[in-house]
């Protein structure tokens, strides 16, 4: 059984403005609705847990019901950091889940077949994530803002979501992070800390995260090119 967690409890501070970025309309459909639909359409996913800000639970329950996802779903409250939101959701994951997949509500352009590819890779490798080789030359910088090094670009990929894991592994990684008071920006970083490598699945460059206002323009252009 595969249980998907959609993390959508952030406040979108880098986006600015008053509106929750989850609810920004992209070519006629809210960001989080596109993310939910893509995950639910993946045949490998059996059920969904949507994590949201406490004050948005009712709104997102209605939105998810209207999408007619065709799979069991629940909406629960998140925490003050992404990692705490996922940790809350982990408590609601059924004990018979073999694979737990985590996706950002703010990545609405993921394709169902990419979700399936990540689940399949997690079944083989226990840990997998959608990712893309970086296109820029990346610098390491010091505290004064000087570039001090240039890592080999062939060794650099940007990790995206979805990320999927054997359920026991993800639970162990989260427990260890809590013990160590480690706070990471993605789930894979927690799993790396317990000694497991993450199999990267190349998802290309369309699976952007809606983070700043430029991303809204880019997402709309990509959706128009797909005619969605
Ligand atoms: N406490 C949090 C923070 C983030 N997220 C989710 O994690 C994903 C990636 O986070 P990010 O893009 O950073 O979203 P925000 O935290 O909302 O953005 P910002 O950092 O600009 O405030 C988003 O789908 C976001 O809703 C979450 O579930 N709970
Ligand atoms: C999980 C993630 O989307 C992978 O790219 C990313 O780490 C979220 O981090 P953010 O700092 O909240 O943007």
TrEMBL record:
Its EC number is 2.7.7.60. One of its GO terms (biological process) is isopentenyl diphosphate biosynthetic process, methylerythritol 4-phosphate pathway. GO terms for molecular function: 2-C-methyl-D-erythritol 4-phosphate cytidylyltransferase activity. Coiled coil: none annotated. InterPro entries: IspD (IPR001228), IspD/TarI (IPR034683), IspD/TarI_cytidylyltransf_bact (IPR050088), ISPD_synthase_CS (IPR018294), Nucleotide-diphossugar_trans (IPR029044). Belongs to the IspD/TarI cytidylyltransferase family. IspD subfamily. Catalyzes the formation of 4-diphosphocytidyl-2-C-methyl-D-erythritol from CTP and 2-C-methyl-D-erythritol 4-phosphate (MEP). PANTHER family: 2-C-METHYL-D-ERYTHRITOL 4-PHOSPHATE CYTIDYLYLTRANSFERASE, CHLOROPLASTIC. This is 2-C-methyl-D-erythritol 4-phosphate cytidylyltransferase. It comes from Anaerosporomusa subterranea. The gene is ispD.
């Amino acid at each position: 059984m595969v249980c998907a967690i959609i993390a959508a409890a952030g406040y979108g501070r880098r986006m600015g403005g008053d509106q929750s970025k989850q609810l920004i309309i992209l070519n006629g459909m809210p960001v989080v609705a596109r993310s939910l639909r893509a995950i639910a359409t993946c045949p490998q996913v059996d059920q969904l847990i949507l994590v949201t800000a406490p004050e948005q639970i009712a709104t997102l329950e209605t939105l998810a019901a209207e999408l007619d996802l065709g799979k069991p779903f629940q909406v629960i409250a998140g925490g003050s950091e992404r990692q705490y939101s996922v940790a809350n959701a982990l408590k609601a994951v059924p004990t018979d889940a073999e694979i737990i997949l985590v996706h950002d509500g703010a990545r609405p352009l993921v394709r169902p077949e990419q979700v399936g590819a990540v689940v399949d890779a997690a079944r083989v490798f226990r840990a997998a994530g959608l990712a893309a080789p970086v296109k820029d030359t990346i610098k390491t910088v010091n505290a004064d803002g000087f570039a001090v090094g240039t890592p080999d670009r062939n060794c650099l990929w940007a990790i995206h979501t979805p990320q999927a894991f054997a359920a026991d592994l993800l639970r162990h990684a989260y427990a260890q992070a809590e013990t160590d008071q480690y706070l990471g920006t993605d789930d894979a970083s927690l799993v790396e800390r317990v000694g497991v490598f993450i199999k990267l699945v190349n998802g290309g460059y369309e699976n952007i995260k809606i983070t700043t206002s430029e991303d809204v323009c880019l997402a709309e252009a990509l959706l128009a090119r797909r005619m969605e």
